[in-house]
Write a structure and sequence with these properties.
By secondary structure, the chain is an alpha/beta fold. It has 13 helices and ten strands. The strands form two sheets. Strands 9-8-7-6-5-4-3-10 form an eight-stranded parallel sheet. It has a two-stranded antiparallel ribbon with strand order 1-2.
């Protein structure tokens, strides 16, 4: 396992984090404990969960494991708040009322006095941003969180948050958790530059594109059985009916498969290795149903692609920005030679 700093902080984490969204739902408590033990054995130090994962059961499983394994001091633990935790009007959002209750509930389920990283799970258009970020500052001063981060923010939202924090003199955010993989690269147009500008580390979720980048889905036959798309072919952005008709998805999967076969490794390892070396990435979040899947993912821990392999994947996965503002003419006008002049 390799290690990097957690964004612009001095804390150090493994370059692969253990995502726990499956815990208590797709993965039993026994299976979750097995994954946690295996992850630590492989050198992993970063656990990511959220209050809405399996309606809090994920946090409970992680908390129980932390207590019984005596690994709390070795782990950087992250959780999130924002999405509905009840039916009341204050059971959702990033208001001080909701986040205070949500954070306290998360700490109780995790069985800890503080979390190392507390993330806003998404933007809240109702709550003033100053209120939300002020809560993170106060929670840090109260010793309930060490660092603050955000998830699923757009570029302008991220920059607005960073500017407000700077004006207030508050502790900066350290991470952004976005969806990012070979099939979802549009964040490179605005979100990644905003993260780089503000020295935030990226914590990509869905690094395998909901399973598409593992090669387990056929483009010609609707999936069935015990897979996410087998159980729900129209599941979210991963929808089989939409992606199976997309030529770019086919091209990316073919490119990943070609590199995997040439190296004698799994397609998942290729996709993960491409992602972990992208600009601003701190730690890639692994989300496995089974320990076998986790073991395959962890085999990418010390794998890095060659420049030629990376170029091959970059070209196949290029989302095809229009000329302006993200294509050639648009990007050209945002740079200039240091020597100046008309040449």
């Amino acid at each position: 396992m390799e290690y990097r700093t957690l964004g612009n902080s001095g804390a150090v984490v493994s370059t692969y984090a253990l995502g726990t969204m499956t815990f208590g739902n797709e993965t039993s408590e026994e299976g979750a404990r097995e994954q946690l033990d295996r992850y630590v054995e492989a050198g992993g130090t970063f656990i990511d969960t959220a209050d809405v994962y399996s309606a809090g059961v994920s946090e409970q499983i992680v908390g129980s494991w932390l207590g019984k394994s005596s690994q709390r001091d070795n782990m950087v633990v992250a959780t999130k708040g924002r999405f509905p935790t009840g039916d009341g009007p204050n059971d959702v959002g990033t208001s001080r009322v909701h986040l205070r209750r949500a954070l306290d509930a998360s700490l109780s389920r995790l069985g800890v006095d503080y979390v190392d990283l507390y993330q806003l799970h998404a933007w809240d258009p109702v709550t003033p941003l100053q209120e939300t970020l002020g809560f993170l500052e106060d929670a840090a001063r109260d010793g309930k969180i060490v660092y603050g981060g955000v998830s699923n923010f757009t570029g302008w939202q991220l920059q607005k948050a960073a500017d407000l924090i700077d004006r207030q003199g508050w502790a900066p955010l350290v991470t952004l958790q976005p969806q990012y993989n070979l099939l979802v690269r549009e964040i490179e147009w605005e979100i990644v530059p905003a993260a780089l500008e503000n020295k935030l580390g990226l914590l990509p979720w869905s690094p395998l594109g909901g399973g598409w980048l593992t090669g387990k889905y056929s483009f010609d036959e609707e999936p069935t059985g015990a897979t996410r798309l087998g159980e729900d072919p129209d599941r979210g952005v991963e929808s089989w009916h939409r992606r199976s008709k997309n030529q770019r998805v086919r091209d990316v999967v073919d490119a990943v498969r070609a590199i995997a076969e040439a190296r004698g490794i799994s397609m998942a390892q290729v996709a993960l290795s491409w992602l972990v070396d992208r600009p601003a990435v701190t730690s890639v979040i692994l989300g496995a149903r089974t320990t076998d899947q986790l073991n395959d993912n962890l085999a990418a821990a010390d794998l890095h692609l060659s420049a030629e392999e990376t170029k091959q994947l970059d070209e196949a996965s290029d989302p095809g920005a229009a000329d302006y503002p993200y294509g050639g003419p648009g990007t050209d006008q945002r740079s200039r030679p240091i020597t100046g002049g008309r040449a």
